[in-house]
Amino acid sequence: LCPCLIYGAYIFLPFDAPLLPTVSARLVYTLRCATFATFPIVLGMIVSGISRLCSSALEPFGELQREVEIHRTYVSQSVHLFILYFFNMAVLATYLPQELLKLIPLLTGLFAISRLIFWMSYAIGRSFRVFGFSMTFLPLLAMLLWNLYGMFVLEPQNLLS
């Protein structure tokens, strides 16, 4: 489903990436796009704080209720996946040709939407969360494999430069 979504968005959405000839300009563009990927994490932090505030627990450091635990786990996992996503996206931006830089905001949007889907499905039940997690993890794995391929096969001479 993820490749179909990315391909459809790449073909049908009417925008192009700006001209980014240098590596530093590409990294700044990636950083700006990654800012939007933090929206589900910040929203999760807000909801987690509100649910912890509204929980009926008498001890603030005691056992967490299921509702509070869901939001806390979501935020923790999302932060870990965002770190992996951001570093892979930064490396990916250095290898992509100019005409494929449109993938950077598309992958950012996919990450944000898939984290929100994971959050909703995790709240429904633990057995439903696999869809949202796979929509987050499989593109991340594909980016990692492409980055390793680019570093070791396409440009091994520029590995450490």
TrEMBL record:
Q: Which residues cross the membrane?
A: 36-58, 78-96, 103-124, 130-154
Q: Which GO terms describe its biological process?
A: regulated exocytosis
Q: In which domain of life is the source organism classified?
A: Eukaryota
| Record keywords, A-Z | Membrane, Transmembrane, Transmembrane helix
Tell me which GO cellular component terms the UniProt record holds. lysosomal membrane; trans-Golgi network membrane
Read off the PANTHER family from this record: TRANSMEMBRANE PROTEIN 79 (PTHR31004)
| Name the UniProt record assigns to this protein | TMM79 protein
Organism the protein comes from: Hypocryptadius cinnamomeus
Gene symbol of the encoding locus: Tmem79
